[in-house]
Specification:
The structure holds two protein chains of two kinds. By secondary structure, chain A is of the alpha/beta class. Chain A contains 17 helices and eleven strands. In chain A, strands 2-1-3-11-6 form a five-stranded mixed β-sheet. Chain A has a four-stranded mixed β-sheet with strand order 8-9-7-10, with helices on both faces. In chain A, a hairpin with a 2-residue loop joins strand 4 and strand 5. Chain B is an all-alpha fold. The chains are: A alpha/beta, B mainly alpha.
């Protein structure tokens, strides 16, 4: 009988352990103090850690480095596909202070969090060609003015629009403002081909993409989620005006109801099926929507422009990935050199050519050969130059969660724009700038 | 322990020797259990007593140590901030109760079909088991496409429901997908139970003139009960920890379907290991309580040491049916 009861208990325990084990780490009792900038000593083998290599080009790059540096070999460590799972791996690595990770690939929005926890090393800015890179991209790699990562590739949103329909309705230029977009839509939707189409969509499902789109709506009206002073600034008229464009868009039907379920891929399908006149999307959609293998019904019928704003061109959220050195890594001198190699202009041009990843270097956006191959580059540069990073706060996870909660409630009609913003203002006040 | 009880010792010295030998045999198991069960549990309990790290406003760096907050992470569920916890608690209980109830009914049905099928038996069994064989995350992705705005669900059903948005429909989507995936599990265990029932019992009942329903409720159900209870218990325990189905199918932090596991995961992901661990400990206690009650009240025989009694009961029952004819 005793055995039986014990085994019963053991079954209960083991079933619950999976959950418990996930939370068992993270005491952080004896963290080492961050070394000062310049403490990059030691040469030898290192690891390069990054998310799943969709491009399949990573082995080529690593091989090139390893051939040139046989005594400082780099091993590629591939992490899962999803960004939050990569972040989880980085945090676990940092909590155990493991030297398994050397150079790590960091999403721009993690910069503040990783830097404040001293999980990544402050970098000597003078050693990199950051002066040749686009300013907003470099700025997003800093925490409190100190560089913590070197831009590897960047990303900004573009407005995809249907050139064929615009022409039919008598418009030559894409809209610069929301009002223009609304007016153009009214005309375009009267065109017979545009029957049953919707005007505009972005990414409005409750996930990181929603934060991107909400930040853009507010920035494009001249506001910001977190102001220059590091305090939330959602009680400003700009924030209200900007955010209302989305809320009103849903209410008026300018944005279709199902857009509340759109992530990048679901939205892309809608655009490629010809359901949308305008679509806010990343550059990766350009090649896919232009594919002439029958997968896209809009191939050759669209172009891109910078995002629309209130009084003029809007402002995009800045995406992209930076390379950083894990604080617990060995052979940091090699790590630094490898970052220089990876983020060089030559490598980023190669990367743009082979994998379509947008470079950080300004000159590459004017490179004739590249512009011919990727006609959206000039618009993308314009979009990046006016782009803003999402709130640069240490507790980014909580911040983006709060933004998503409130914005989702407003877009799905549960709250008014004002209610959502004022509630977000007070939630963020407790999260950003201090404990 | 088993070795000891099997043969009573003859002398006290011999008994002591046996105890020693027995402990030695059990030691490796105990060691493994200590490492994989006891340590993570105690570590989680300890972690749950600490709060999140603060940020030094001067340097901008996160402080090195987490503050000891005692039971604050636990008492927090009774304050205003506990709303999310109780919502997750309610969701967990609701999703478990509804999906396990549906799975049980469907699972028994599947078991009967698998048991009865004469032609294409292998094919029917295999096809019923396919959903169970697919990983939950993949199932959730498949159903996400089905419940997409332009998906199959909306094409079949009247109206256009945005299934993955907040609301009761999100709960329905999770229950549906969860039932689809796990009813075969109950079916499988019940099938094993069905195959233990001697054919003569049914023959005797038939001779007595019992109809199909009567045979099901008076013979099949009572005799399959031990296997069914174990299956249901396992499903309840599993369901109370539900994470991947709502997480992938509907999405993170949606209050309509957020379960306790998702809440604990979300806290841990935001580097608040203390509250995360506290939620996990509370979930563990809840799971434990439910399992304990289930075993005590319904007498589910998890370990199988009541098996001889069961088969005796079957025989007795079978005999009873025959003699009464």
């Amino acid at each position: 009988m005793k055995t039986r009861a014990r085994i019963r208990a053991a079954i209960g325990v083991s079933l619950a352990t999976t959950v418990l084990a996930a939370c068992g780490t993270g005491s952080g009792d004896d963290e080492v103090a961050a070394p000062k900038v310049g403490d990059f000593t030691g040469r030898g083998p290192i690891t390069f850690v990054s998310g799943k290599d969709f491009t399949g080009k990573m082995p080529t790059v690593i091989k090139e480095w390893n051939n040139a540096h046989p005594d400082q070999k780099v091993t590629f460590v591939e992490l899962p596909e999803q960004a939050d799972q990569q972040r989880q791996q980085y945090i676990q690595n940092a909590e155990t202070q493991s030297d398994a990770y050397g150079v790590i690939s960091v999403d721009v929005v993690w910069t503040s969090e990783f830097a404040a926890h001293r999980w990544i090393e402050p970098l000597p800015e003078g050693e990199f060609e950051t002066d040749k890179m686009l300013d907003p991209v470099v700025e997003a790699a800093k925490y409190r003015g100190q560089l913590y990562g070197v831009p590897n590739y960047t990303d900004a949103g573009l407005l995809y629009y249907r050139t064929d329909l615009l022409k039919k309705a008598g418009f030559d230029e894409p809209p610069q403002t929301w009002d223009e977009m609304r007016q153009q839509c009214e005309e375009i939707l009267k065109v017979p081909e545009a029957k049953d189409m919707s005007c505009y969509a972005g990414q409005f499902e409750k996930y990181e993409g929603l934060t991107v789109n909400v930040a853009e709506s507010i920035q494009s009206a001249g506001g910001s989620i977190v102001g220059e002073d590091g305090k939330p600034a959602l009680d400003t008229p700009e924030a209200k005006e900007g955010f209302s464009t989305l809320v009103e868009g849903f209410k008026s039907g300018m944005i279709p109801k199902e857009a509340i379920t759109y992530q990048e891929e679901t939205g892309r399908q809608a655009f490629q099926k010809g359901d949308l006149v305008f679509h806010r999307q990343w550059p990766y959609q350009y090649a896919l929507a232009n594919a002439d293998d029958g997968s896209s019904e809009v191939a050759g019928k669209f172009d891109v422009a910078p995002l629309p704003g209130i009084d003029g061109q809007g402002s995009s959220s800045l995406g992209g990935w930076n390379l950083a050195v894990s604080s617990f890594a060995k052979n940091k001198a090699t790590a630094l050199d490898f970052i220089k190699f990876m983020t060089s202009e030559r490598k980023q041009r190669w990367s743009l050519d082979e994998t379509t990843r947008a470079p950080a270097y300004a000159s590459l956006y004017e490179d004739k050969e590249m512009v011919k191959k990727y006609p959206y580059l000039p618009e993308l540069k314009e979009s990046i130059l006016t782009a803003e990073p999402r709130p640069r706060v240490v507790r980014y996870g909580d911040t983006t969660a709060a933004i998503q909660d409130e914005a989702y409630a407003a877009l799905s009609g549960e709250k008014s724009a004002e209610e959502a913003l004022s509630s977000l203002q007070s939630r963020l006040a407790g999260l950003v700038g201090g404990p | 322990m088993v070795a000891i009880s099997m043969r009573p010792g003859t002398g006290s010295s011999r008994k002591a020797e046996q105890v020693k030998f027995g402990s030695l045999l059990v030691a490796p198991t105990m060691l493994v259990l200590a490492v994989v069960v006891a340590y993570p549990m105690l570590s989680a309990v300890r972690q749950s007593l600490y709060g999140p790290e603060g940020i030094d406003p001067q340097t901008g760096f996160v402080t090195d140590t987490e503050p000891f907050v005692g039971l604050d992470n636990y008492t927090a569920i009774f304050t205003e901030a506990g709303g999310r916890f109780w919502n997750a608690f309610g969701n967990t209980a609701f999703l478990t109760a509804t999906s396990v109830a549906l799975e049980t009914v469907l699972g028994i049905g599947m078991a009967l079909i698998m048991h009865r099928a004469l032609r294409g038996r292998a094919l029917i069994r295999a096809s019923i088991l396919v959903p169970w064989a697919i990983p939950t995350a993949i199932v959730a992705l498949l159903w996400r496409w089905i419940f997409n705005a332009d998906g199959v669900a909306n094409a079949i059903l009247p109206g256009k429901t945005l299934w993955t948005t907040e609301g009761f429909h999100a709960k329905l989507a999770v229950i549906f997908a969860e039932t689809w995936k796990t009813a075969p599990f109950i079916g499988l265990l019940v099938l094993a139970g069905l195959q233990l029932i001697p054919k003569e019992t049914y023959e005797a009942a038939k001779v007595d003139g019992a109809g199909a329903w009567r045979r099901f409720f008076s013979i099949t159900l009572p005799l399959v009960k031990p296997a069914l209870l174990v299956a249901v218990l396992f499903r309840i325990l599993d369901s109370l920890r539900m994470f991947d189905m709502p997480y992938v199918l509907i999405g993170a932090r949606k209050s309509s379907v957020e379960t306790l596991s998702m809440l604990a995961h979300d806290e841990a992901m935001n580097v608040r290991f203390g509250p995360g661990a506290a939620y996990a400990v509370l979930l563990f206690l809840f799971v434990f309580l439910v399992a304990f009650t289930f075993v005590k009240v319904l007498g589910a025989d998890v370990v199988g040491d009541a098996a001889p009694a069961t088969s005796r009961r079957i025989r007795r029952k079978a005999r009873g049916e025959v003699t009464s004819s």
